Amino acid sequence: MPRGRLRIYLGAAPGVGKTYAMLCEGHRRRERGTDVVIGLVETHGRARTAELIAGLEIVPRMTLRHRGATFTELDVGAVIARRPKVALIDELAHTNVPGSRNVKRWQDIEEILDAGIDVISTVNIQHLESINDVVQQITGVPQRETVPDEVVRRADQVELVDMSAEALRRRMAHGNVYPPEKVDAALSNYFRVGNLTALRELALLWLADKVDEQLGRYRADHGIAETWEARERVVVALTGGPEGDTLIRRAARIADRTKGADLLAVHVTRADGLAGGDPALLARQRALVESMGGTYHQVVGDDVPRALLEFARGVNATQLVLGASRRGRIAQIFGRGVGVETTAMSGAIDVHMITHEQVKKGRERPHRSRAALTRRRRLAGWAVALTGLPLLTAVLIPFRDTLSLPSFILLFLTTVVGVALIGGMWPAITAAVAASLLLNFFFTPPTHTLTIADPENLFALVVFVLVAAAVSLIVDVAARRTREAARAGADAEILSALAGHVLRGEAAVPSLLARMRETFGLVSVTLLERRPEAGQRPDDRSDPASWRIVAGSGGKPCTCPDAAGTDVDIDGDLVLAARGRLLDASERRVIEAFAAQVAVALRQERLEEEAERARPLAEADRMRTALLAAVSHDLRTPLAAAKAAVESLRATDVEWSARDRAELLETADESLAKLDRLVANLLDMSRLQAGVLGVAAQPVAVEEIVPRAVDDLGPLAGEVTIDIPHDLPEVVADPALLERVLANVVANAVRYTPEGERVLVTASRYGERAEIRIIDRGPGVPRDSYDRIFLPFQRLGDRDNHSGVGLGLALARGLTEVMGGELTPDETPGGGLTMIVTLPIAAHGDDVPADAMEPGGGSEEFGGPGPRGPGSRGAGSRGAGSRGAGSRGAGGSAGLAGSREGGGDVR
Predict the structure, then answer these.
(1) Percent helix, strand, coil in the chain (nearest 5)?
(2) Quick one: which of 276, 177, 702 has its CA closest to 484?
(3) Which residue in 247, 318, 259 sits closest to 289, CA to CA?
(4) Distance between CA atoms of 523 and 581, rounded to whole angstroms?
(5) Whole-number mean pLDDT of the chain?
(6) What is the pairing mode between strands 547-554 and 524-530?
């Protein structure tokens, strides 16, 4: 059965018209005779969208119960059983209610597609997994419902439903997106012009990338090799030389001339890996490319022009930037060069030849030792040449009458080859010249003279010298290549170890310096940085006052670059100084790679430090944003209710009965009490975070505090069972604060306990501490979310703000800790959540242990310790303006912060 086709309407923000466009498409297909059904459509109360549902068949939804509430979800089985040609299914990124067939709606759609049914769906750009964090950074609103990018990229068709920011805001102001009471808050928060413009750009860019992928597949499927200038792409070729920085910056300027152009840098490496650019320069140029928003690539090929053009055509490049040739005039006579060859074969790709300071200075090849063999082998070669040839001559003289000249030549050639194998080129060439003279003098008629009578003998000796020299050269080149390969292998092993060092997370600067010192057997390695106040001077490399030590490893550190045996300039202000043995040129190349990695590690450490310093500010900004978003409803609702009640009472054109007046007064009282609780929670949370909340700690009987906390729940108190042992010792706590903690935690437990179950509050002693356990049989909380439930303004499950601002458990934990206790969650055996309040046991004979009294006890927030009489809530009575411990009088409900409205809404 062929798989169904997926079409997605992509939007930049809610309200742009994705669902409307999907329903319009459904009607168009139905009018053409296609069998179309609605699997699931969310109108969100939008009348014009709801009107379009008429005339389309609707597959009944599946009904589920969760946490005592009823929900409806897409019935995948019913859609598949109905077998329409097209199914309209809204909100691709939606998370299904627990108990559904799949966790996510896009998984439901995958099943329907596998059944051969075409699906049309919708999704907003903020729900794509790859840019979820970017959207949160822009809007300040986290998106918990996401869909993998690959799901959307696999769609057969993605259509953008586009709308300008101003038009969307006008649509919202007219009430076409959200209800009127939510419009002001939405326009001033998520739907600001800047946010909508940024989201729109993200949607356009994401869709442009998908279109580019489709174009690439089309070109590949149809074998199209020539460039299609659908999108500007600038490729810059890097050789690993010092001119690379100039080329990159010029290519970046070329790319910047076209909005949205791509910048790609490429370096061609030889297949044998024995020649290439400077790794330190390439590492620095790679960082430069990436800092300019480009990408770095490396390809392998012996034919550099062909490799460059194959890469450029593969990425559909429109322009190629090359550096002018560094070869001298003589070298250009024997070959046209990479630039000329590339230009000749470029076809439709524009080639830019950029001049630079290195033009015609020749290629800077890596410095190598001139000798391919060790000194010991070279000396051995000279010894064999000086002793072997005379000895061979003495041995062959008696055979002059029996052997011919070609035989003597072959024997001497064998000796020369042996010298080449042992000592390399120069001993072998010397041996070849000496052997030709010995052959001429002792074995070529007339003997004992350098005169050669037969021209054939002269030709044979000349060929002998040329063959001997050629063999010597080949042997020397082979030995050099072998040594270079061995050195390259060693360098690769060192760099591989460095890469593994980084991948294992050991990329701290001291660790890298220690690894470098151990690898090369150095005495010390020091990273120096030029002091900003010193500035750059010609003589500052020898002035210790101009440099500061960033990090070091080993013995006595270098205090300035000139004090080092080997120094590597990383950039204008960083220098890596090594003290110890002198390093050869090949080792210095690897040192430069280490230096580049050290610089990256240093920058990363400093970025992390800056991020750590900025984290408190970001957290404060996040909390401020969350607070404004959370309290926007909770502040307006009680204020509006109280205002309406008071205005009704003050109205002179209506005669209110006594019962009506009482109801209006009760409404105003309840609304103002709710507002009082919310403000009390916010104030106490701010005091907790500022560390200025005073505590009046004293011995407290748990069996007296728990019933009062439960009573504060009002009608919900009947769902709580209290089981406190009468012999439980007193604990050290502030009576009023402990009551607020228990009220918040118990209210949260009651909210999530299923019908027919009760919340159990019990307590017991463990050593010198007492534990108060609030046990519920609700859905529980995953262990990995235990810390999240104590964050201010946090609710698990992405709930709305209509049930409180989410301060309940955050405030409860803060109040518990300020009293010297702990509030921790645990699993309830058999299902549910158990919240444990742990407090110290009061010492016998003392009012309060010295270490249990917080500084500031008895401050203006709470009264000092006093006698605890029956029915009192703590020390001191609660008078006007006092929110401390005391008997519950007027305004006493302020102590119930978060029990219902204030928060604790966490699951």
Answers:
(1) 50, 15, 35
(2) 276
(3) 247
(4) 8
(5) 77
(6) antiparallel
